[in-house]
Design brief:
The complex is a heterodimer of chains A (206) and B (71). By secondary structure, chain A is an alpha+beta fold. Chain A has helices at 18-27, 62-66, 92-96, 132-138, 150-154, 165-179, 187-192, 198-205, and strands at 4-8, 37-41, 49-53, 72-74, 80-82, 160-164. Chain A has a single domain, classed as Alpha-Beta Plaits (2-Layer Sandwich), CATH 3.30.70.20. Chain A has eight helices and six strands; from the N terminus they run E-H-E-E-H-E-E-H-H-H-E-H-H-H. A two-stranded antiparallel sheet of chain A has the order 1-6. Chain B has helices spanning 2-13, 46-58, 62-65. The chains are: A alpha+beta (206), B mainly alpha (71). The A-B interface holds A 2, 4, 59-61, 64-65, 67, 69-73, 75-77, 81-83, 85-86, 123-130, 141, 143-148, 152-153, 158, 161-164, 167-168, 171, 174-175, 178, 193 and B 22-24, 26-39, 41-42, 46, 49-50, 52-54, 56-58, 60-63, 68-69.
Chain lengths: 206, 71
Amino acid sequence: MARMKFICDAERCIECNGCTTACKSEHEVPWGVNRRRLVTVNDGLPGERSISVACMHCTDAPCMAVCPVDCFYRTEEQIVLHDKDLCIGCGYCYYACPFGAPQFPQAGAFGLRGKMDKCTYCAGGPEENFSAEEFRKYGRNRIAEGKLPACAEMCSTKALLAGDAPVIAKIYKTRVATRGKGEQLWGWAMAYKGSDKVSDNLGAGA
Amino acid sequence: MRTLFAAVAAAGLLAACHEIPQDAAKPYAGKEDVKPYAGDLFKGDRQKFEQALAQRADHENEYLRTGDAKK
C-alpha cells in the first residue's frame, strides 16, 4: 500500500516559486489562498536555504484530531483530505497544524472566514472524480490520472519530491550519499559531477 | 513488605511513561470518496494505478533517468 509523502531538498531548492505557481495554476486557487508556499531562512546571507511547504499529509494528522465536525479523512494512499460540505471554517486545524497548511478564504467583510482549503496532494476530494464540482471545491484530480502532484512534477531542480515514502526516501538518500556535504556542495564539481580539468578540481582537492 | 511497597511505588511512578495513541480513531462524518483507480483509466485495477504512480516517482530520480545510477 502506497504512503504518499512530500520531501523538500533544501540543498536543491532555488526559490523559483515554480511549485507555488504550478499549484495555483493547476487548481485555479483563489487570490489570498496559498496551498503551497516557499519559506526562506537567512535570506540574502551565506547559508540561505529555502523550503517548499504545504500540507505534509501527516501520518498522525493533528488537524484530523482537533476537527470538531470530523470532516477529515485519509485515503488508501494515506493522503489527508477533507469534506468542504462539512467544514464550518472554525480554524482549529490551522492552530493544530505545525506547517500552517490550512488556508481560509476571506468570505465576506470584517475578516469572515470561508471553508478551509489546503493541499489535496492533487487528489481532489469527496466528489465524483473529474467532475466540475470536484474541481470547483478541491481542484484537479491528478492522482486519479496516475500522475503525481503538479508542484513536484513541475519542480525544475527536483528539490520537491512526491511519491510513495520509501521511493522518495531512497531518491533523497542516493542524492545525499552522492553529493557529500559541507564544501563538497559548492562549485563546479557538485554541479557537473566532476571534471577532468585540473582547474575545476582545485577546490575539491583542497 | 518492602518489596511490595517498592513495586507499587514503581508502578505508580511509571504509570505515565507508556505510549498513548496520538491519533484518536475519530469517525469521518463526510461523504464517501470515490477510489482514484475506479475510473475508466485504471478500471479498478489498483496494482496498475500504483505502478503508474511508482513510475512517475522513479522519473524524479535523475540518477536513474540519465543512466548515472549504473556508473
